[in-house]
Amino acid sequence: MNPSLLTALVLALAVSAQKLQDMKMMEEHMATLDSRLQGGCGAAGDTMGSLNELEQRLAEAEFKQEHLTFTFTTIQAHVFKFRAQDFRGLNLSSETAQNRKQTEIRVQHAMYFPAELMQDIQAREVEQKLVCIYIHSPCIFQDARNSSVLNDNILGAFLPKVYVTNLPQPVEIQFQHDKVLDTSNATCVSWLQGAGSGDLGSWSSEGCETRHSQGTVLYRCNHLTYFAVLLITPGNISQAELVSLTYISIVGCSISAAASLFTVLLCCIFRRKKSDDTTKIHMNLLGALFLLNSGFLLSEPLALASEGLCRAAAAFLHGCLLCTLAWMAAEAFHLYLLLIKVYNIYVRHYLLKLCLFGWGLPALAVISILLFKRDAYGCLDIKTTDGYKNATMCWLTSRAAHYSTLCYAGLILLFNTLVLLTVVRMLRSSQRQKETARKDWATVLGLTCLLGTTWGVAFFSFDVVFVPQVYLFTLFNSLQGLFISLWYLTVHCRMDCGFASTTSTTTR
């Protein structure tokens, strides 16, 4: 036998053996990834790294036929090869894989690649590959929001070493389902690797269009990547309303923070004698409101910072809210002692006990949450009815902590409301006896802000009045610090004027 022919034969056999070995290793790699995905997200490990390795293996795969398919329980892969000049478009659906291997596909889906996909390929005669990967698992594409996609199905496509974007004729992806979906609760998105916080990617609807029909979601996109149908929990306000509410909150909280700080400093600098307990309680409430407003203003920008910083901001904001509610309860209790109980109201270390209740108890609650369930604080999404647009802030992410805070606020507001109603009844009784008691009704408005009863609006979130209720809640409570400051300064100015008038009369 000719030595050169023998050498060629040996080389051919070696290349064939190497190709078979590569195919076997690729199948083993996919089988390992499939097994990890079936084991759940806790056992999945670095699935994104494994997926990237699989993409590279598929792109480098050598095979004779035009179409290569691998099918496992949670992952499928298809590789098509062709010359750019011969490409006339491609239709690929789940039936294609089902015919080649008798594996049931949970959800029907299809992808259409237009002929324009190859328009920017310069080497028209060079063989190209189109890699398509179907994934049925939530464990690989996880963003910071822990978003959910329809039936955990993700479809991906790419051309090796070619970045495809701004296609004149879009790629069409079709998802079939048995749910009730429309633009309010589902939208098609594409994956942007590394666009999220840390090493995470994120889902984005940019460059794509979503169309809904009964049982089908059609996705038209001008680039190649991984695609899915993102499920949205609809909010009760629109994006425009969210923007206006955010503006009202920022302006109101800024004004309240400035007014609260100004009043506290004014009281500390210009007080002529030792303040009584009533003034000290007022100042503690204004101090808590200053911290609450400041924490709220910082919560949104810090949501874009590191996870630890956002968690600290959320804990601070939660603690300030608990302190504010506690000091509003202290105001109501002090009012009860002064106007209702009247007699035998001496309490030993009275202000110290109020401080332990107003500052110590909330601090203890926040520290306990951080010690035993620190993930209760984090980045919270505020979703709207307009689709995949939302605002984020650092706040409670645990339902248990959220409802516990609501119960705490509800009990305090109930007590404060009962005290306020009792004071109103006393004023009505005194009005029958003295005509001058009418001016005391202005005091009721001040007490309404002082006791925080406007926070009770949050418990009347019904469908018809929800949006007006949110606007009233935002307006009144973002300006609570301003209202209390004006009320305090007005009352003390009136007292100083009365004291000056009495002194002048006595002198004469």
**Unreliable sequence segments:** 96-107, 499-508
Number of helices: 12
**Order of SSEs:** HHHEEEHEEEEEEEEEEHHHHEEHHHH
Shape: elongated
Query: Which structural class do the helices and strands define?
Result: alpha+beta
Mean pLDDT: 80
How does the major sheet shape up? Answer: 8 strands, antiparallel
What is the helix fraction of residues, given as a range? 40-55%
- Calculate Rg over CA atoms: 33 Å
List key phrases describing it.
508 residues; alpha+beta; eight-stranded antiparallel sheet; five-stranded antiparallel sheet; 12 helices; 18% strand; disordered C terminus
What does this structure look like?
The structure is a single chain. With 508 residues, the chain is of the alpha+beta class. 52% of the residues lie in helices and 18% in strands. It has helices spanning 3-38, 41-44, 47-60, 94-100, 239-270, 277-302, 307-341, 350-372, 399-433, 441-450, 466-478, 480-507, and strands at 67-71, 75-83, 90-93, 109-113, 127-136, 148-149, 153-158, 171-176, 186-192, 202-204, 208-213, 216-221, 226-231, 377-384, 387-396. Strands 1, 2, 5, 6, 7, 9, 10 and 13 form an 8-stranded antiparallel beta sheet that branches. It is elongated. The N and C termini lie far apart (139 Å). The model is unreliable at 96-107 and 499-508 (pLDDT under 50).
